[in-house]
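User: My collaborator sent over this chain with a note saying "see what the structure looks like." That's all I know about it. Can you take a look?
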Amino acid sequence: MFKKILGTGATRVVNVLTQLATLIMGTKFLGASEWGKAFIAQTDITFLLIGIEVVAGSGLVYFTPRKKLSTLMTLSYGWIALIMVLYIGLFYVLHLDSQLFYTIVPETYATLILANTFIYSLHEFNLNHFLGKEKVATYNWLFIIQILTQVTMMAVLIFGLNLRTGKALLYSQLCGYTLATLVGWVLLLPNVKREGREPLKDCFKELFRYGAFMQLSTLVSTLNKRLSLYLLNTHCDEKSIGVYASGTQVTEGVNIIGQSIGLVEFSALSNTDSEKRSSILTLRFMKLSILLTFTALLIICLLPTAFYEWLFSGEFAGIRPVILLMSPGIVFFSAYTVLANFFSGTGQPKFNLFASLIGLSVTIVAAFTLIPTLGIRGAAITTSLTYFSLFVYQWIVFQKQTGSRLKQLVPNKEDFDWLKSTLKGLF
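Assistant: Without extra context I'll predict from the sequence alone. Here is the result:
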């Protein structure tokens, strides 16, 4: 299990590095205007995927051990096709008012946005299937194929074909999704057997009910992040927003720890029906996530301002206060990530939605109060308060369900023995 965490963590590190390379190529060789179009297009894709993932999203991880592959594939592919037809119709209707349409979708980008949404949906189905089967290594390799193909093709498009528009990013993403999808099919399709029939209607209801809560939570979380940026854009200049964004990226880099642990936890919990085992694993994963996240943030926080000025230039001298103010929130978020995966992995995604709604309420109050007076520092404090509220709510629910106590978050001898035996098995 620990080997899966390390493998997933390594994959996330590769992802961070490729994102950095993509960012450098995009900003240096495409220009601010074209990079802005690419960013808007990516945002459009993110919102379109929410509708598809109601049925064909990460909820498949929970149902993969419980339902037949042929059933899940039939329902997911059918839902993807249906939603894509609806999206094409929506784009056509919006295009009747071209001024409105081009404020949402960059001009000439509509086809690329829809194509990326469609292919990524197929790729995501494969990823979720292998994760649900606890084939984390296969999941990681497909993910690596996607991101490495993407960054390679972007370099080819920019330097080889001299494509200097934001479409370079979307074309490169489309190449990455397509290749990874094809490789995933090669590994997946031999597993589709004549398994008999399952009641599609009942299965669809389960998928929809489960996925709806998860995607509503995603939608609320996305709106949550956008509110702070909107207020910053109202009360601060572009330079301040850049400093805040950089500070956010530095601290979010640490999130790969909690995300990697949470991913393996989600897969493990989806394959167990023991409530006691689920709660024990969750507590151990949470303690491990908090410890590693705190250690990484401590190192980052101890770095002097001069280091950040050298790394990002003197314009980013104000980044360290942002990092310091956001760091407590990131620690709470690492714990929240584990708890959120507990509820998703045990078939209770509604609690993640409720947590997101509470977090959004805190964001609204804190952001409107702190950002106008404190600027980017107010935004950083708002983030920490939001993440703290997410953890508190999730912990209260977890505590009521499992009878756990806060003192159990203190590492004990059994935890160290578990970690020792896991590491021994790894090496």
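A starting point for your reply to your collaborator: The chain has a mean pLDDT of 80.
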